Structure formats: C-alpha cells, structure tokens
TrEMBL record:
Listed Pfam families: ADK, ADK_lid
Keywords: ATP-binding, Cytoplasm, Kinase, Metal-binding, Nucleotide biosynthesis, Nucleotide-binding, Transferase, Zinc
Claim: ATP-binding is one of the keywords in the record: yes
Source lineage: Bacteria, Pseudomonadati, Thermodesulfobacteriota, Desulfuromonadia, Geobacterales
Free-text domain note: Consists of three domains, a large central CORE domain and two small peripheral domains, NMPbind and LID, which undergo movements during catalysis. The LID domain closes over the site of phosphoryl transfer upon ATP binding. Assembling and dissambling the active center during each catalytic cycle provides an effective means to prevent ATP hydrolysis. Some bacteria have evolved a zinc-coordinating structure that stabilizes the LID domain.
Compartments (UniProt record): Cytoplasm
Region (LID): 126-163
Region (NMP): 30-59
Protein name per UniProt: Adenylate kinase
Domain of life: Bacteria
C-alpha cells in the first residue's frame, strides 16, 4: 500500500503518518524530516537547504528527488510507504511517477487533509517537536504529559524555526502557488481522497483507517 499524505503546512500530515506507521506497519518518508536531519548534521545538503527552509520556501526539486529516490529503494519500503510532504511540485509528481514505474510500483491513494487556514495557524503556533526522537505535540490539542518534555524520550521539546508567524504566512503562500495545483493533478488520475482535516486527531485517524482498510491494494 503506497500512500501520499497531502495537505497544507500544519494540516496534520506528520501526526497522521505516525498513526499509519503504527496501525499499518509501513514506513513514513517525510522529506521535511530528512531535510531537517541534514540541517542538524550540517551536511553540504543541509547547509544548502537551511536558509530556504527557515524562510518557508521550497528546496530544489533535484535535492528532494535525490533523497526520495534513495529512501524509497530501501528494503523496508518493499511492502508500502507513506509519503509525507512529497511531492510538492508538478516536476516532483512527474518524477515520482517515473521512479515508481521503474520499480514496478504505483500510488494507491493520495489522502488530502483539508483544513481551514485559521485552524492551520493555531496548529503551527502551538506545535512542539522533540529534537531527539522527532515526536510531534501541540501545547493544547496534543499536549505531552509534562509540559515541554517528550513523553517518549524525556528530551526538552522545541519550536521549529519555520513555525514563526511571518514564516507560516510565506509557507501557506508557497503551498497555494506551487503545491495546491497537484490536487487537480491527482484528481485527474483518480487517486485523490479528501478527508475533512478540521476534526480531532482521533476523528481523522478513524476516517483514514476506514479509507485504507476498505481500499488497501485497490487501484482506481
Ligand atoms: P515539512 O516538514 O514537510 O512541513 P509542512 O509540509 O509545512 O508540514 P508540517 O510539518 O508543518 O505540518 P504537518 O502537516 O506535518 O502537521 P503536523 O502533523 O505537524 O517541510 C518543512 C520544509 O522543508 C518546507 O517548508 C520546505 O522548505 C522543505 N521541504 C520539505 N519537503 C519538500 C519538498 N517535497 N520539496 C521542497 N521542499 C521541501 O501538525 C501540526 C500541529 O497541529 C502539531 O502540533 C499537531 O499536534 C497538531 N495537530 C495535528 N492534527 C491535529 C488535529 N486534528 N487537531 C488539532 N491539532 C492537530
């Protein structure tokens, strides 16, 4: 089962990807997480990506495609994967289609988490992340047991650089201009599944579960 989680910044892609990993046992491929790991490691790729990410822009298609190609070919992706934050441009979507064709695979579902803009700003301003294990939280909607501390590994939680209000506005604009046209791209290919992403985390988990359990493996 090969799934794309699609939606604007803060729609809940990472949150729901964690759920799908646990529920369906397929790995999450998050280009944002891979890029943040490269930034943390101060690799040449990370150094090139950092200022673009901090400003809320998109890293070059070439860099992102290189990361995805390598990751998707690993053995744990053999029986399926969840793409989170990729593709984000039409060239990325075209390259993914060619890549999968070469591997004898295809996308089964593109799940679009449809969330109102005001809700997105609330979610991103309250997001906190564990820098050690990557687990995500929200100060009000998905709070850790002890404020500011990761439930899973006990590390101090941090706020992402790109979650500052002015950067969030830029990320939303980049999404509108460069990523939202992909809705039409996937609609035309019969792959798009819309989910109302404004509900609680548990509501959305239920909707995703029904969709994936009911349709796993069926290609429209
Ligand atoms: P990336 O990390 O992919 O960021 P994003 O797409 O902007 O998505 P987010 O991680 O901000 O949000 P999310 O949808 O995962 O929401 P989350 O689950 O955390 O990319 C970062 C940057 O990397 C990009 O700006 C770009 O520079 C670069 N990049 C990455 N991929 C690229 C690509 N393909 N091409 C080029 N550049 C690329 O939820 C948000 C918050 O809301 C959390 O606090 C969560 O607890 C809370 N929450 C979630 N669901 C709910 C709910 N139902 N109710 C209440 N709260 C909720």
């Amino acid at each position: 089962m090969n799934v794309i989680l699609f939606g604007p910044p803060g729609a809940g892609k990472g949150t729901q990807a964690q759920f799908i990993v646990e529920r369906f046992g397929i790995p999450q491929i998050s280009t944002g997480d891979m890029l943040r790991a490269a930034v943390k490691a101060q690799s040449p790729l990370g150094v090139a990506a950092k200022s673009i990410m901090d400003a809320g822009g998109l890293v070059s298609d070439e860099i992102v495609l290189g990361l995805v190609k390598e990751r998707i070919s690993e053995p744990d992706c053999r029986d399926g994967f969840i793409l989170d934050g990729f593709p984000r441009t039409t060239p990325q979507a075209d390259a993914l289609t060619s890549l999968l064709k070469g591997l004898g695979k295809h996308i089964d579902h593109v799940i679009s988490l449809d969330v109102d803009s005001a809700e997105i700003v609330q979610r991103l301003s309250g997001r906190r992340t564990c820098p050690a294990c990557g687990k995500g939280y929200h100060v009000a909607y998905d709070a850790p047991k002890v404020a500011g501390i990761c439930d899973a590994c006990g590390s101090a939680l941090v706020q992402r650089n790109d979650d500052r209000v002015e950067t969030v506005q830029n990320r939303l604009e980049v999404y509108r201009q460069q990523t939202s046209p992909l809705k039409e791209y996937f609609e035309q290919r019969g792959l798009m599944r819309h989910i109302d992403g404004n509900g609680t985390i548990q509501d959305i988990q239920g909707q995703i579960c029904s969709l994936l359990k009911g349709n796993a493996g069926d290609r429209p």
